[in-house]
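Bug #77: duplicate submission created two jobs. Keeping one. Sequence:
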Amino acid sequence: MKAVRICALIFFVSFASVCFASEAVPDPDLTSGSSHQMMSQIEKLIYGYVVQGGLIERLSKVEEDLFGRSLPGTMAERHAAILNFLDVGTDEQPSMIFKLAIAEWIVNKKIRASEPAARRLEDLEVNLTGSSRNGNPIVMRVESLLATLVMDPVVAQPVNLPGNTVMKFRFMDELSPAISKAGDFVRLELTNDLIVNQCLVAPAGSLLITEVREVKRPRMFGVPGEVRLSFNELKPLGNQRPLVCVGNESQAAIKEARRVGDRGEGAVIGAGAVSLAGAALLGPVGLVSGVFIRGNSIKIPAGSVTFVQTSGDCVVSAYPIPISLQTAENNIETSRPADNSPSQGNYNPDRDTIIKRDVFNRNSYGEPTNYGTVNNGGGNFELPPEQSIN
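Kept job's structure:
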């Protein structure tokens, strides 16, 4: 235990030195907000809620909970260092949430990305040892867990996540015009591990960032209600956010899921006994970023499933899976047709999405292409003709 404590301290000191080095450039997306916004973001990552009180008091509590001591520097520097430590990491050290996810994945083969870090850590400790180590610095507790679970240090490795990679997601909450409103974020979790070249890109339980674009409740004279969703980004282990969309490959997977009866745990939308796979996808030709549903009694129950695909090639940080944690299924090579036509009949809902080598998105000269990339602004496109669900 003493060795773990010393290693954790060395890790923190080395990480802090990188964060505060003069040549270090903080992540602009994390540090562009006000001190209040950054403090709130930090607290939500750790505790799941915003703590009441003054900024100095709240910052001191976070530092004590994380490291057992206060950081040097100005308030802005300390905010930036903590955010980078929690959610970004460095080339030498993955972020703390990356490491926590690996510990969670090793134990449960799934992560709880929608839960705050402190709760996930406490539950892991209780499952493994029978008790929580609350009161000790969080960074030390994470390193202690990893030392128990895996021999080699947890590192990140850049890999290429090919475009048009199909992923299956499950709705975690019910969605309907009665309870949803524009601007709400909808929780969808990845159902299977996403693995590229024996590197874990996104474990089962990773989140798809989904937003309700528009809600119209049913009106008089039989005017149906409408719900429009935007599928924006995948949240993998690293801090990159690959764009996703609905395209030919994901629509083929939806059709196959309907054929084999894979409708998840919430199979019905409204009274029409139509699974989510029957919802009107924004398409049907080309790549767009969401789902449109219309009907007099719209309800997407928790547990319903849908499929999306990556919009284009993207380099992401992944966890090289040690040989001791690899399974026979990880050696399965999955591929798509050389042309961009939808594949048929090869969907397996119980198998991880595994890519053994980069064989996708190559033109006739062998050069990578970005077929299907959508606008980074989140879906500025013309909607197709409306399709109804009775």
